[in-house]
Amino acid sequence: MLNQIYRQIKKYQTIVILRHVGPDPDAICSSLALRDAIKLTFPDKCVYAGGVGVAKFKKYGNLDKIDYEVANDCLLIVLDVPNMARVDGIENLNYKEILKIDHHPKQDIEASIEWVDENKSSTSQMVTELILNTKFKINQKIAENLFLGIVSDSERFSLKNTTIETLETVTKLLKKSHIDFTSLYEKLYIRPFSEYKFIAYITNNLIVDKNHFGYIIINDNVLKEYNVDAATPSNLINNYNFIEDLLVWCFITEDVKNNQYKISIRSRGPIINEVASRYNGGGHKYASGAKIKDIKDVNNLVKDLSEACQIYENKEN
Ligand SMILES: [Mn+2]
Known about the structure:
Number of strands: 11
CATH architecture of the largest domain: Alpha-Beta Complex
Distance between the termini: 43 Å
Shape: globular
Bound molecules: manganese (II) ion
CATH topology of the largest domain: inorganic pyrophosphatase (n-terminal core)
Strand order of the largest sheet: 6-7-8-9-11-10
Helix content: 25-40%
């Protein structure tokens, strides 16, 4: 598989790499690392890492503005995304073939070569395996981004998606690159104090029911008060991973700009992506999300998640 992917990339002069909308560090870092590795290995190729830029992720590197004329008939590589509707920047792109690398459950993207493995911690882990096991070249910047993507999606190797293979891959990456990896944690985790005050707000206002389901609806005026945006709650939700009173917890954030509610859900037991998929969402078994327009559906989702906790607890006891 890895060599097949390498040969596919080698074949194309122009390559566009895209990932999911509302990117996280795994999506951004895997895109940038793969782009840079292709460019380093094949300096004559034209490679774009596309999608809308996010100011706070600029520290990982710059995304590219795609020249759609040049990109005509390109190889499209989709990373960290299983469905067409969530591929950021695909609208005007005329691609010849799709190559897909992803660790989400398969959805509607049909690629000529696809490497999908739900047992990988992150897309960054998969790109690391690709680079280290083929003739791709690597440098310090590429290694740093790969490390950050893996650390972020595995929550510092603490989530259930972390395997011995994850650790072995990271060990190989560190041995090969000699990056100063402990210094990199600051890049990932440093936050303004205002965000910690916002965490305190969430903590104080989270509603926890008898089924050990916790949720909060965060309105736009609160986001403004704490000077954070609608994407912030989803970046803070892993802070609640080790609270014994919570089995499942859900942040519902009013997203005025897009006239919808952004939903982030985490679980310490019940499988939640099946519930999320009923509400125009999806994701992993224990880490899912959705976007909901109608507050009625939000209320139904809350009910369903609480029920999932109840069923889970009845089974456990
Ligand atoms: Mn990911």
